[in-house]
Design a protein that fits this description.
The protein folds into 2 domains: 261 residues, no CATH class; 90 residues, no CATH class. 58% of the residues lie in helices and 15% in strands. The chain has a 6-stranded antiparallel β-sheet with strand order 1-2-3-4-5-6. A hairpin with a 2-residue loop joins strand 1 and strand 2. Helix 1 crosses helix 3. 33% of the residues are buried. The N terminus is likely disordered.
């Protein structure tokens, strides 16, 4: 049995290491470019289908779509790395290099070492994108969409024009010149209210990403508990509410420091912080899967033969492993949603279970590498 321990001498960039890393760079670059292009195009289509971006120029929509790059980098870089390492070993098997390297005394552990070192670099880049890049991009995208929605709502409207800035909240322009406003609010859980003003103006507050409604000389009707309406006249009134694009709370938009502070605050208050801890752990889950992917690539590659083409098999293996990792994480998310409503809380936190897919893949890779080393 030839078992090469990964020491500093093993990880020095020898000619073999540089050759393997060089063979990895081309498929990694092409795969990442393909994945990122598909992701940006998908984000662009989502931006273009939003009502507030209908009147937006295509170039401005493309800029909004590019805000998805940090999140896509953190998510797609590990997937591209897995596909690239499998393709790299498949190409080595097709060219006969893999058989020659093993016959010359290089163990599977020795051949995996440079790709394992490359996986640490990929992990660092992906983790930074997940921890800091994606939350920043989410905040920028939400603020930009809120500004677009605010600009669309405050444009001059014709009489009879209807606006719905929030679900259950409707604004209708009234009067011959459209200067009046009729507000219908059905957000009160069965309690309806109507506000009719002779003059009304809409103003976007960019600091709080909220819509201000200024009303003059109007009447308010609010449904009572017995079905009657309470009537109230006013001379001046002002309403302010967050826009739909920025009003919902999103844990994914919080930075890692803000998540840690929120978790500490919730524990001080005695409240549950399961979803916050799960969000923080999930940001590490996919980047830390890269070393496990590097461990799996070599033992899953078979020598080239006419009946088995290694390269198509590499694509299928990449899809299968990514699907397995995704399904395990989705199962943990479903368990976390059940835990939030459960009482008392379970012994094992869902945040700890997030590491289970990475651990299982790493143990599988080590076992398969050990098995292949015994055959050498």
């Amino acid at each position: 049995m030839r078992f090469a321990i990964l020491t500093s001498s093993t990880l020095r960039l020898t000619l073999l290491d540089r050759h393997l890393i060089g063979r990895l760079c081309i498929p990694l670059t092409l795969t990442l470019f393909t994945f990122m292009t598909a992701g940006v195009v998908g984000q662009l289509l989502r931006v273009l289908t939003r009502p507030e971006s209908y009147a937006l120029p295509l170039l401005a929509s493309a800029r909004l779509a590019l805000l998805a790059l940090p999140g896509l980098t953190g998510m797609l870089l590990p997937a591209a790395f897995l596909t690239a390492v499998l393709i790299t070993f498949a190409r080595l098997a097709e060219d006969g290099e893999l058989t020659a390297l093993e016959a010359s005394g290089h163990s599977p552990w020795r051949l995996t070492a440079p790709l394992l070192l490359a996986s640490l670099v990929i992990t660092a880049i992906s983790a930074f994108a997940q921890l800091e890049g994606e939350p920043w991009a989410r905040r920028q995208l939400r603020n930009s969409l809120a500004a677009l929605q605010g600009a669309a709502l405050t444009r001059p409207r014709l009489p009879g024009s209807t606006l719905s800035p929030l679900p259950g909240f409707t604004l209708i322009r009234t009067g011959q010149d459209g200067s009046g406003l009729l507000l219908a609010d059905d957000r009160g859980g069965g309690r309806h209210s109507l506000v009719l003003a002779r003059a009304g103006a809409l103003e976007y507050n960019p600091r709080d990403h909220a819509l201000r409604v200024h009303l003059q000389d109007g009447i308010s009707l609010e449904a009572g508990s017995e079905g009657d309406y309470q009537r109230l006249r006013f001379d001046h009134a002002r309403l302010e509410f967050p826009l739909q694009a920025a009003g919902t709370f999103d844990l994914a938009a919080l930075s890692s420091g803000a998540l840690h502070a929120r978790i500490a605050h919730l524990k001080t208050m005695g409240a549950t912080s399961v979803m916050e801890e799960l969000t923080l752990a999930r940001r590490w889950a996919l980047p830390l899967a890269c070393p496990a992917f590097a461990l799996l690539a070599m033992p899953l590659t078979r020598p080239h033969s006419r009946s088995r083409a290694p390269r198509p098999r590499a694509y299928l293996l990449a899809i299968g492993l990514l699907l397995l990792h995704y399904l395990l994480l989705r199962g943990i998310d479903a368990f976390a949603s059940h835990v939030v409503a459960a009482s008392p809380p379970p012994v094992v936190s869902p945040a700890h279970l997030v590491w289970l897919p990475d651990l299982l893949l790493a143990l599988l890779g080590i076992a398969l590498l050990q098995r292949r080393s015994r055959r050498c």
